[in-house]
């Protein structure tokens, strides 16, 4: 499946008997774009532990366990509905905390992202002024950098900057790094260098949430139905509670690319 081009391999870990011990290596093999299926991450559907409909374990393409994935959560919400694991509202356990999904239409899903748990609107990294936002607990780390000409920079130059910031000592856990151009108070154009993928992805859901949170608190965005245009498509983000801040909602498309079997398991 993919959400705005952010793509994932999804497997029912129970029916396939997948051990958590073998999941990192499985993720590396399946997500390899030349030797495997190819994806930004592997998502395992697991039994719930805290009364939710099901649990999501998300592994990045490099095999590392991710705290959460916004576009992945929207896709897994659709998977849960279409496989009768939940109704039109999906209660999902993630490593970063509970997430609630909602079916808007056959392909459009909205989730409430994990609330921001750490916000630093001005953190210097590699000599640049970035905003730093963590979503959930443990927090999924995001750096947000306003860079009006990011889409005109040479790709290798932008990649090198994204990689330097992703590993900057200013971010102890590393960070997903989003470069942002503000179009107006309700829309931005952005791209995210993702930790664990170690490259730019076509879209980043939690990155879109971090962008909207940071720039709304700075007074640069309205926070209401903000369109985040990424290379893979548009996502819509609303920060409903701008004082706490909390109630961060992400809406966007989901797509089932194909279903099949692999001998890799």
Briefly characterize the structure:
The protein has 265 residues and is α+β, with helices and mostly antiparallel strands. Helices cover 18% and strands 41% of the residues.
Q: What would you say this structure looks like, in words?
A:
The chain has a 17-stranded mixed beta sheet that branches. Helix content is 18%, strand content 41%. It starts with a strand and ends in a 12-residue tail after the last strand. The protein is globular and about 50 Å long. It has helices at 23-31, 70-82, 155-166, 205-217; strands spanning 2-3, 6-12, 41-46, 54-60, 65-66, 89-94, 97-103, 108-112, 116-125, 128-135, 140-146, 176-184, 187-194, 199-201, 226-230, 233-241, 246-253. The mean pLDDT is 97. The chain has 265 residues and is of the alpha+beta class. The protein contains four helices and 17 strands.
Question: How is the secondary structure organized here?
Answer:
Blueprint: E1 2-3, E2 6-12, H1 23-31, E3 41-46, E4 54-60, E5 65-66, H2 70-82, E6 89-94, E7 97-103, E8 108-112, E9 116-125, E10 128-135, E11 140-146, H3 155-166, E12 176-184, E13 187-194, E14 199-201, H4 205-217, E15 226-230, E16 233-241, E17 246-253
Parallel strand pairs: 2-3, 4-6, 11-12, 13-15
Antiparallel strand pairs: 1-2, 3-4, 4-5, 6-7, 7-8, 8-17, 9-10, 10-11, 12-13, 13-14, 15-16, 16-17
